[in-house]
Design goal:
By secondary structure, the chain is α/β, with parallel strands linked by helices. The protein is 46% helix and 11% strand. It contains 14 helices and 8 strands.
Length: 374
């Protein structure tokens, strides 16, 4: 059932505690700190509160990070980091902010543009010298414990992942208190994104015993707590459990990467405007059914572990859970039409991770899958 030969490595130090983000100065080695976030985190005062606590540090802010961040945004943040001789980058927010913080920390002491290094770039990143600390404010991305960043090339409108050992954060700070004010819609989408991370790690062709057991725990925590976190935003127990589940899911897929769910999400975010979590979870039930046929023994074990009698009941339950949280359930809910299916399949197939799915992934089979939930 498990691969008998595997590797497991993560160099990131993890600190998990309610309220820990209120006092981070002891974790920072350098003097010049750049806090990267999206506009909401800056406008809500979260970024400034953390910055103000960093006494005796020179703190600058960059808060122009958009969902599905572009390479152009990375280059703007990099210029600020270089101008202020930044020696510590704090990425605060969801996956977009943390992804940008990873590459900016690298580019602070690597010359050139992000486009020189990814998506056809010919240069290679040298050893990162700038400290990198990631602080999630959602319970979903797991980016604080992965070496992956996903960026959009504005010229081609293609969203592609970048994977490099220099992108591992030095420190991950998980403070469940930062998720207490998440809107319900974000709680749902990011929570289901975490579930996708966990289940894609579990059925991944590169799955291994450690990531499997971590992902099992993450999935169970999510199913036990996400609806409560969605309906009762001040439920501290549910919020804390979701933060832990997101972390565990991140640890799991940091070893395996994701699969077809994430590959097909790229065009749904870049071309149809779906949030990342929505773009992933919308294909979750059909992928569960597909993989259930290909890896029946392992998927039946998962279904029973999560309290379901079989894989079909698991898939249907996920669909119903998403419905209860008012999430889009069909591609048509995102504005996708039948004429778009071939293109979505073509773009998804360009992402190498799609071939980590334990099923045949070709233009024909992917189109068939997409049409099943149009």
């Amino acid at each position: 059932m498990f691969n008998e030969v595997f590797n497991h490595w993560i160099p990131t130090k993890i600190y998990f505690s309610k309220g820990i983000s209120n006092n981070l100065k002891d974790y920072i080695k350098g003097k010049n700190v750049l806090i990267l976030s999206d506009p909401f985190i800056k406008d809500s005062g979260i970024a400034e509160k953390i910055g103000d606590s960093l006494t005796n540090k020179n703190v600058n802010y960059f808060s122009e990070i958009e969902p599905n961040p572009s390479g152009d945004t990375v280059d703007l943040a990099t210029k600020l980091a270089r101008d202020h001789k930044t020696d510590c980058v704090l990425g605060i927010g969801g996956g977009s902010a943390m992804d940008v913080s990873k590459i900016v920390a690298c580019l602070t002491t690597n010359s050139g543009s992000i486009y020189d290094y990814y998506s056809g770039g010919k240069r290679k990143l040298s050893s990162r010298k700038t400290q990198l600390i990631c602080i999630p404010t959602t319970a979903g991305t797991g980016s604080e414990v992965t070496n992956v960043g996903v960026f959009t090339n504005l010229e081609t409108n293609v969203k592609m992942p970048m994977v490099h050992d220099e992108l591992w954060p030095d420190i991950a700070i998980i403070d469940p208190e930062l998720t207490y004010t998440l809107p319900a819609v974000v709680t749902a989408s990011t929570g289901m994104d975490a579930f996708c991370h966990a289940i894609e790690s579990y059925w991944n062709k590169e799955s291994q015993p450690i990531s499997d057991y971590i992902s099992l725990g993450a999935m169970k925590l999510i199913l036990e707590n996400i609806e409560n976190a969605y309906k009762e935003p001040e439920n501290i127990e549910a919020r804390t459990a979701m933060s832990l589940a997101s972390l565990l899911a991140g640890l799991a897929f940091s070893q395996t990467r994701t699969t077809g769910i994430h590959a097909l999400s790229f065009p749904l975010t870049s071309e149809f405007g779906a949030s990342h979590g929505t773009a992933c979870s919308i294909s979750l039930p059909p992928f569960i059914r597909l993989v259930g046929k290909e890896k029946s023994k392992k998927m039946e074990m998962l279904a029973k572990f999560l309290g379901f009698s079989n894989v079909e009941e698991l898939a249907q339950s996920i669909y119903e859970l998403m419905s209860k949280m008012n999430m889009p359930l069909r591609l048509s809910d995102l504005g996708v039409e039948e004429k778009d299916i071939a293109h979505i399949a073509e773009v998804g197939l360009k992402a190498q991770i799609i071939q980590l799915t334990p099923a045949i992934m070709t233009q024909e089979t992917v189109e068939e899958l997409l049409l099943s939930y149009l």
